[in-house]
Amino acid sequence: MPTITLKADERFCNDLHEMAREMQVSKSELVRRAVNAYRDNLEREHLRIALQKASYRVRRIDPDLSGELDSLVSDGLEDA
Questions:
Q1: Which of the 8 DSSP states describes residue 25?
Q2: What local confidence, expressed as pLDDT, does residue 60 receive?
Q3: Helix spans in 1-80 (H)
Q4: What does the buried/exposed string (b/e) look like for 45-54 if buried means 16 or more CB atoms within 10 Å of the residue's CB?
Q5: Pair 65, 54: CB distance under 8 Å
Q6: Taking the CB of residue 32, how many other CB atoms lie within 10 A of it?
Q7: Main-chain dihedrals φ then ψ at residue 23, nearest 5 degrees
Q8: Cβ distance 50 to 43 under 8 Å?
Q9: d(Cα 52, Cα 56) in Å, to the nearest integer?
Q10: DSSP assignment, residue 71?
Q11: Would you say residue 65 has pLDDT above 60?
């Protein structure tokens, strides 16, 4: 497995060490999880924006749907 080196201040190192200890995982595992969670969050945000843009396009094409879509804009997206 490749090795990645990063420079960090003392506070970051202490926080990383403490979090890894509390979670009972290695610092490497904690960083891997954090990066994966960040990537997943970015993907969800991109999807949310794409859905919102698609909704606005549909509203321009079919104004009758606009009222229906207003009630659905955030439906289920708060957990996405």
A1: S
A2: 73
A3: 10-23, 27-61, 63-70
A4: eeeeeeeeee
A5: no
A6: 13
A7: -85, -10
A8: no
A9: 6
A10: T
A11: yes
User: What's the pLDDT score for residue 58?
Assistant: 72
**Is the CB of residue 16 less than 8 Å from the CB of residue 27?**
yes
What's the rounded Cα separation, in Å, for the pair 6 and 18? 18
Helix (H) or strand (E) holding 80: none
Identify the sign of the CA torsion 57, 63, 69, 70. positive
Q: Which residue has the tokens 């960083």?
A: 31
CA distance 52 to 19: 36
Record the tokens describing residue 44, joined without a space.
Answer: 């969800």
Q: Find where tokens 């996405």 sit.
A: 80
Tokens of 36: 């994966």
Predicted pLDDT of residue 76: 62
Which amino acid belongs to residue 39?
R
Q: Could you report the per-residue pLDDT of 24-34, keeping only the tens digit for each?
A: 999 999 999 99
